[in-house]
Write a structure and sequence with these properties.
Structural class: alpha/beta
CATH class of the largest domain: Alpha Beta
CATH architecture of the largest domain: 3-Layer(aba) Sandwich
CATH superfamily of the largest domain: Glycogen Phosphorylase B
Largest sheet: 6 strands, parallel
Number of strands: 12
Number of domains: 2
Strand content: 5-15%
Radius of gyration: 21 Å
Distance between the termini: 27 Å
Low-confidence stretches: none
Helix content: 25-40%
Length: 408
């Protein structure tokens, strides 16, 4: 039996937890001990509560960095996470190293955890990245921009990487580790598990890349409580903080469809005001295996796991991205023709959008075309392959086919 660390540092929502749940269960089935270090514990008990996993709080950067323009790439995201402040970053790295000492894993798996990657350089434990394509960016120099559909000045990307690399190398010196030659070296691990399909890679155009596919647990949750009223069915996973939340709910009440809404943290008042003969709210996470099979349309904020789960079941999506990572996924969805996108701060006629998605066959046809490419590849098979690869890493077989050693 091996002890395996699964650490999550950045991001939010259910996706990280559901991926970890699926992999954690498979590792236990194979006789291993997964130990989780999580960015936030808000939904941890709802997802992990009956599993018996050991869970730790991750060391995270909590200060508010001001005066920076909107990030255009990975380096400028790191600037907001303590990578401009070597003293603070060193403290975070030492905290991660302390956790490694306490947990004593034989393999470390990181889901969007750049500080943990920096902290564990040089440690005698094999390492892997695991997560969406956004959290496993291409290892190029310079690294790619986020808004690939608009373009950004290359000189700014290069300058930002130079600054962040210098600060990170200062921290490595304090940790008695060799410097990195380029910022992309931060991602130098023994394996990179990109847990999405190529269709939904937020960085389109990668080469020589293996996509492991969505492994989120689709069976966790409760069956969707579909109302009896409505010619079609809509599943909506919404955030109450979205600027058009109640406007969207009003549109859903006006559509001839049975609607199930999962909106974590929604108030009782909103539920009372918007529950209708065709609209039901579900407080618990909905079982996605049921929702994606039974619905005709999905609505979400373009989390890549939710979008991929719906579209690979042949269901179109109305995407309402809130932040940049979600917008990158939404742009891939639109390019596939399998849905419509309402960008942040954009105002739209939601009734008209919903009717288009339900009545115009092109969206469903495009989603079914994607689903046809994935019909023989179930999440259970994907997580089995990932767990098998983890066992290879435990035996010392790196992605380069040689023994796993220190990362630098």
């Amino acid at each position: 039996m091996a002890r395996i660390l699964l650490a999550w540092e950045l991001g939010g929502d259910y996706g990280h937890l559901m991926r970890f749940l699926t992999l954690g269960r498979e590792l236990i089935r194979r006789g291993h001990e997964p130990v989780f270090v999580l960015r936030e514990l808000t939904h941890a008990d709802a997802v992990f509560g009956d599993e018996g996993f050991r869970v730790f709080q991750a060391p995270i950067f909590t200060a508010n960095v001001t005066g920076l323009p909107a990030a255009i790439g990975f380096a400028e995201t790191l600037m907001r996470l303590g990578f401009l402040h070597p003293s603070t970053l060193t403290a975070l790295c030492r905290a991660w190293r302390t956790l490694i000492d306490v947990i004593a894993p034989e393999l470390a798996i990181f889901d969007y955890a750049p500080t943990a990657l920096l902290a564990t350089r040089g440690l005698a434990v094999p390492r892997a990245m695991f997560g969406s394509s956004f959290s496993v960016p291409p290892r190029t120099e310079p690294m790619p921009i986020y808004r690939w559909w608009t373009g950004e000045p290359a000189a700014r990307v290069v300058a930002s990487e130079r600054v962040v690399l210098s600060k990170a190398n200062e921290v490595l010196a304090r940790l008695s580790q060799p410097p990195m030659a380029r910022l992309a070296d931060l991602l130098d691990v023994d394996e990179a598990f990109i847990a999405v399909s190529e269709d939904f890679d937020q960085y389109p155009g990668r080469t020589a890349t293996r996509y492991w596919g969505n492994v989120a647990n689709l069976e966790k949750g409760v069956p969707p409580p579909w109302p009896m009223v409505g010619a079609k069915r809509i599943f909506a996973y919404l955030k109450p903080g979205h600027g058009h939340f109640e406007k969207i709910l009003n549109a859903l009440r006006a559509i001839d469809a049975a609607v199930v809404v999962h909106a974590p943290g929604v108030s009782d008042l909103v539920i009372r005001n918007h529950t209708a003969a065709n609209v039901a709210f579900c407080a618990a996470p909905v079982r996605m295996a049921d929702a994606r099979r039974e619905c005709d349309l999905g609505i979400c904020h373009a989390g890549v796991g939710t979008v991929e789960a719906l579209v690979t079941a042949g269901k179109p999506v109305l995407a309402l991205p809130i932040h940049l990572e979600q917008l990158m996924t939404a742009k891939r969805l639109a390019a596939l023709g399998a849905g419509l996108v309402v960008e942040p701060k954009e105002s739209r006629d939601y009734v008209r959008l919903l009717r288009r998605l339900l009545d115009e066959p092109s969206f469903t046809i495009a989603a079914q075309a994607v689903a046809a490419r994935h019909v023989d590849d179930a999440p259970a098979a994907r997580v089995t392959r990932i767990a098998q690869r983890c066992e290879e890493l435990l035996r010392g077989v790196s992605a380069r086919g040689v023994a796993c050693t220190a990362s630098t």
